[in-house]
Amino acid sequence: MAIPQSFLQELLNRVDVVEVVGKYVQLKKGGANFMGLCPFHGEKSPSFSVSPTKQFFHCFGCGKNGNAIGFLMEHTGMTFIEAVKDLAQQVGMQVPEEQQSPEDRARAAAAKAKQDSLTDVLEKAGASYREHLKTSQRAIAYLKGRGLSGQIAKRFGLGYAPEGWRSLASVFPEYDNPLLAESGLVIVNEEDDKRYDRFRDRIMFPIRNIKGECIGFGGRVIGDGTPKYLNSPETPVFHKGRELYGLYEAREALHSAGYVLVTEGYMDVVALAQLGFANAVATLGTACTPDHVQKLFRFTDSVVFSFDGDGAGRRAARKALDGALPYATDVRSIKFLFLPAEHDPDSYVREFGQDAFAEQIKQAMPLSRFLIEAASADCDLHTAEGRARLSSQARPLWQLLPEGALKQQLLAELAQLIQLETAGLERLWGQQAASDQRFAPAASPAAAAPTRQAAPPPEYAGYASSSAPAKSWPRKFDKGSGNSRWRRTAPPPNTGPRTLPASRADHAARLLLGNMALWETLASEDQAMLCELPMPHGMLFAWMEAQFHEHGPLGWSALKAEMQGQLFAEQAERWMAQHALGAGDDPTPPDIHEARQELRGLLNLLLIDRLKQLETEALTQAQSGKDPEALKRYESLYRRRLELSAQSRSVASD
Q1: Is-contact 262 302, C-beta < 8 A?
Q2: Which SS3 state, helix, strand or coil, does residue 97 take?
Q3: Which of 438, 510, 605, 642 is the most buried (most CB within 10 A)?
């Protein structure tokens, strides 16, 4: 979906960043700006500034900055498109959808109206459940017995679904309204069309999306009934494989704690929040999926999965490993916490205390160690057969990892366990992968025409260019050379550093356009900085981020087609064309590590430039005497710039 630059500019002119940020952060007037405690990292004195004149927020402690769109993306986890639509709705603007036909727009409007109707119904039911909780001594006694206070119950909107088959009929006079069945609140017997409440005599946990809207419920039986937990069914607004319980309530705690703790149940989340760990979330009665992991990494760069130490917990952790591996970049941390079989997080904290549980989290098993442990299951490493089995079980896990230092280090560790040279193991796995592909069932004609590019061959892993050859880079004997040289023909487009664009921003754009997968390796601060660059670069990077969230890493040809009509399209094509001309005669294959290293160096230099600008502003404010904290900000910015300069020199010397 292409949103015109003119619309985005008009939207940002209409919204007030102070009002947008003020919904989530308590702000106080401080000179020309508003100040508050940063929602992105823990702090005791305010270093988070919002400028009403510049319509810009900036934290002098952690470096986060941006406009109203960027704040919603960073704080609420919305995608670019979601943030734009949310702000547009607040000011009564209609987001243009130029690429959609009238029929598509009508269908989208109908779907949006249906979603709004369903959330309204669910919100109304949730309010009824909360009222019933106030009058049910049995439900109140159960929650108190679990150690929950009224304050924490209110924060999570806990309620009670009373006994009786049609209690919701008192809330919805039109009990046969199709929305009640479609929202999952009412079950309809297909044989006799009789209707009854899905949730009866249960503690009710409302499930909220990142906007805080109720999209479903989880119900916990009070007595000995079955099932113990009952979830809403799949609906147009609720998908168990994508949503996480407690994520909306945990947003601020995620930033202050620096990590998210993924648990197995609703009660774990609520109880941990009561006990000082408000950064916990839970999957909704299903295994952790890649969609869950991707959503979590929109809020934090560190995830800790917590499981029981029994067999069921290990199996759940194994599924979480599969979902997490594709997102285990070098700038992220993924750990697995296994508690003793007799404990869940709630009981462990109550018995041993917060500090003991925090230490358990700190000592949690890194993803690299758990991958090796999972791959080594049932393998006798004292025999050749056992080591061969390890190789077979490790390959599909290792191949899920994105390119980077972690993947290369794990290759070396696994090679040592299998007793092969690292290069030999990589070659063996490459041959096996090629064999798997060669003998895979033929795709149907419909599947043979994907809307997105096919994956590149192993030797170009990570370089998702749709113009890259489907087979390995061919060689041809050059008979006319006279010296029997082999030469390469039809080399793939080179995304490595070859020519010097006009500016650092041009150079960074070319690297990311040629290899969009690099976007996933960037820290959130890097992404925000790129999106806040002046036109055309900032708008290009914001657009790329939206494309990445919606479609994943696209190749240059696919990006080129999608960006037609955007204001930055012409410049982007020129940058890529200049690169192609400079690389046409270069026979060296692209190197993912070289591209990543060069991008890191560019980002450091861009950030250094930005810090210099902020230093000048802080020094000016300090000299004016109007801002007593300005000198401290200047010193902090100066120290950070020196550190980055040292890192840049280190990268340049490697």
Answers
A1: no
A2: coil
A3: 510
Q: Which of 51-55, 308-312, 339-343, 549-553 has the lowest mean pLDDT?
A: 549-553
| CB neighbour list of residue 347: distance below 8 Å, 6 or more residues apart | none
Place of tokens 């794990």: 410
Q: Which residues are registered as beta bridge partners of 260?
A: 303
Segments in 146-246 forming alpha helices (H): 150-155, 178-182
For residues 57 and 515, the answer to whether their CB atoms sit within 8 Å is no
Nearest to 16 by CA among 90, 92, 94, 95: 90
Distance CA 57, CA 52 (A): 9
Nearest in space to 407 (alpha carbons), one of 482, 347, 461, 350:
461
Say which residues have a Cβ less than 8 Å from residue 134's Cβ, sequence separation at least 6: none
Q: CB count, 10 Å around CB of 39?
A: 23
Neighbour-count burial of 558, counting CB atoms closer than 10 A to its CB (0-12 exposed, 13-18 middle, 19+ buried): buried
CB hemisphere CA count around 529 (13 angstroms): 22
CA distance 149 to 140: 10
Smallest CA-to-CA distance from 594 within 583, 584, 609 is with 583
- Please report which confidence band the pLDDT of residue 238 belongs to, taking 50, 70 and 90 as the band edges: very high
Biggest CA-to-CA distance, the chain: 95
The alpha carbon of residue 327 and the mean position of all alpha carbons in its chain are separated, in whole angstroms, by: 9
Contacts of 5 (CB under 8 A, 6+ apart): 535, 539, 566, 567
What would the two tokens of residue 644 be? 């980055």
Q: Let me know: does 563 contact 569? Beta carbons within 8 Å.
A: yes
State how far the alpha carbon of 477 is from the alpha carbons of 486, 487, 583, in Å. 5, 7, 22
Token pair belonging to 251: 């947003």
Torsion over CA of 509, 514, 517 and 518, rounded to 10 degrees? -40
Number of Cβ atoms within 10 Å of the Cβ of 262? 26
Contact 74, 40 (CB under 8 A): yes
Please state the φ and ψ torsions of residue 320, each to the nearest 5 degrees.
-65, -35
**Residue pLDDT, tens place only, 245-297:** 999 999 888 878 889 999 988 999 999 999 999 999 999 877 888 889 988 88
Name the residue with tokens 């020309």. 32
Name every residue whose Cβ is closer than 8 Å to that of residue 430 and which is 6 or more positions away in sequence.
Answer: 458, 459
Distance from C-alpha of 53 to C-alpha of 51, rounded to nearest angstrom: 5
Residue 438 confidence class, pLDDT cut points 50, 70, 90: low
Could you tell me where the beta strands, DSSP code E, fall in 3-158?
28-30, 33-36, 48-51, 56-59, 65-66
Q: Indicate the pairing of strand 280-282 with strand 260-263.
A: parallel
Compute the distance between CA of residue 634 and CA of residue 159 in angstroms, rounded to an integer.
50
Distance CA 183, CA 233 (A): 8
pTM (2 d.p.)? 0.61
